[in-house]
């Protein structure tokens, strides 16, 4: 592909079929919660016109459109949630400093990949254990009093409700999560939590009072429309998926790493959507290692994991109205994987 590292569609298992994922490939789920605003469309370029006069008209119209859009209220980039209590962990930051970690649950936090206990065991024994990232919200430390009336510090950690239930049913998942959560708190707040020495309290689910937490929401990338040279026909493969729609079409797609090699700077995805007339028909969500695309009259549905961690907030998408190809450019994160934290 002209010097670009290329990935074919067959290398990307669909997220709806977990049986296709080896343990090492199950990296993370969505990097962050997205808001529900639809993708906006930009100007359509016709190819016909009166040369410079038409280009000047398009430029002025684009400026006017941008001014109008800039005055529209933007979607909130965060929202408050009120978690439910789960269980409480007792540990220490020093021999005399008690620390309590309130593990809470909320449906507003995304779940991690749905591993089996056997897959988790393989992941822990492998060199890729740090790649399995658990979405969680780490609250600010708050001062409390223990049962003896002595001062202590408490942290609130919120995870997905379904994943919490899984922890309660499986000790291996619970111990793995607690290790990840304590490491996340230690890194975020520069505290010396003594990881090996912790205890889940039997008669207490929460230390202190439950308060609201604010989690970040990220808007979906804007898809720009283009109408230039007409392209050829593309093929699509019908496939039934577990989705509210009873029948969906998985579009043909290709993903390139640029430059090719083990350390590319960004990924470029080209998704063929021959039955889509406008970007307004599409809904695109990007996670740190996931692409979810839906919409169109087909209807199209693409839900895949990708082999690199990207920066969703810096990614860009463009729909070519002539070739019916959606191009998504995704910068790659340079920092190695760590537990996924929601503020």
Automatic annotation (TrEMBL):
InterPro entries, per database record: PIH1/Kintoun_subfamily, PIH1_N, PIH1D1/2/3_CS-like
Domain PIH1D1/2/3 CS-like: 263-332
Domain PIH1 N-terminal: 73-220
One GO-annotated biological process of the protein: box C/D snoRNP assembly
GO-annotated cellular components: cytoplasm; R2TP complex; ribonucleoprotein complex
Similarity field: Belongs to the PIH1 family.
Function: Involved in the assembly of C/D box small nucleolar ribonucleoprotein (snoRNP) particles. Recruits the SWI/SNF complex to the core promoter of rRNA genes and enhances pre-rRNA transcription. Mediates interaction of TELO2 with the R2TP complex which is necessary for the stability of MTOR and SMG1. Positively regulates the assembly and activity of the mTORC1 complex.
Record protein name field: PIH1 domain-containing protein 1
Organism per entry: Crocodylus porosus
């Amino acid at each position: 592909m002209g010097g670009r590292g290329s990935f074919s569609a067959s290398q990307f298992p669909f997220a709806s079929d977990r049986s296709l994922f080896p343990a090492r490939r199950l990296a993370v789920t969505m990097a962050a919660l997205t808001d529900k605003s639809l993708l906006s469309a930009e100007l359509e370029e016709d190819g016909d016109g009166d040369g410079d006069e038409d280009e000047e008209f398009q430029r002025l119209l684009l400026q006017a459109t941008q001014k109008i859009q800039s005055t529209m209220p933007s979607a909130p980039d965060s929202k408050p949630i009120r978690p439910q209590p789960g269980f409480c962990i007792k540990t220490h930051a020093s021999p005399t400093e008690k620390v309590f970690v309130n593990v809470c649950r909320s449906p507003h936090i995304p779940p991690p990949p749905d591993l089996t206990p056997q897959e988790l065991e393989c992941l822990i024994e492998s060199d890729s254990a740090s790649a399995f990232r658990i979405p969680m919200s780490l609250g600010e430390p708050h001062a409390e009093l223990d049962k003896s009336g002595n001062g202590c510090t408490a942290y609130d950690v919120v995870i997905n409700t379904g994943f919490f239930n899984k922890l309660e049913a499986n000790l291996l998942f619970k111990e793995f999560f607690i290790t990840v959560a304590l490491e996340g708190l230690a890194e975020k707040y520069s505290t010396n939590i003594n990881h090996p020495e912790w205890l889940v309290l039997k008669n207490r689910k929460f230390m202190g009072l439950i308060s609201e937490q604010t989690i970040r929401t990220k808007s979906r990338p804007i898809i720009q429309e283009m109408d230039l040279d007409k392209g050829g026909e593309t093929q699509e493969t019908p496939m039934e998926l577990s989705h509210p729609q009873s029948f969906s079409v998985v579009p043909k797609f290709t993903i390139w790493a640029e430059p090719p090699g083990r350390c590319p700077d960004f990924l470029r995805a080209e998704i063929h959507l021959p039955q889509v007339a406008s970007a307004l028909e599409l809904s695109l969500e990007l996670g740190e290692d996931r692409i979810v695309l839906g919409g169109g009259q087909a209807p199209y549905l693409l839900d895949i994991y990708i082999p690199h961690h990207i920066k969703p907030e810096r990614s860009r998408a463009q729909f070519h109205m002539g070739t019916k190809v959606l191009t998504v450019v995704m910068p790659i994160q340079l920092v190695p994987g760590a537990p996924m934290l929601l503020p």
